[in-house]
Amino acid sequence: MSAAPVVTRSSPRVPRILGGSRKWMLASLIAIGLGQAAAAVATALLVEAAFEGMIGDLRPPTRAEAVRCGGGLLLAVVVGSVFRGLERIQAERLGQGYAYRVRLALYDRLVTLAPRSLQGRSQGAVA
Question: The pTM is what?
Fold first, then answer.
């Protein structure tokens, strides 16, 4: 006969996915995604304008037009890259923070169990 686990306090619950600061992290990830989309649209429009200017007019672009278009493309690429870096950092923080909270809840639950009830539990063996 196995002893029932002794719980001295209320059992810890799995943390809410959007609890605490995680909802703001998710909101910032959405904003970063919108920024990435805007940079991609700007890149596409600048490439279209460059080709329309070169092919449509059948004349080589002026130096000012080339600098404007090239600078715009460079700016769009840099902004997109910055947003991509921010996205990776923020997504990692969001995921690691949630995993940390889940582990804490798991450990909090394990310390409430009686040692005798833990002896009969599997220790990870598959077979």
Answer: 0.71
- Segments making up each domain of the chain, as ranges: 22-106
What is the Cα–Cα distance from 39 to 98, expressed in whole angstroms? Answer: 30
**Residue appearing with tokens 């809840």:** 105
Q: H-type helices in the chain, by residue range?
A: 22-51, 63-111, 115-119
Confidence category of residue 9, pLDDT binned at 50, 70, 90: low
Q: How far is CA 102 from CA 12, 13, 18, 96, 120, in A?
A: 10, 9, 13, 10, 23
Chain-centroid distance of CA 93 in Å reads: 8
Q: Taking Cα atoms as reference points, which of 41, 39, 38, 32 lies closest to residue 87?
A: 32
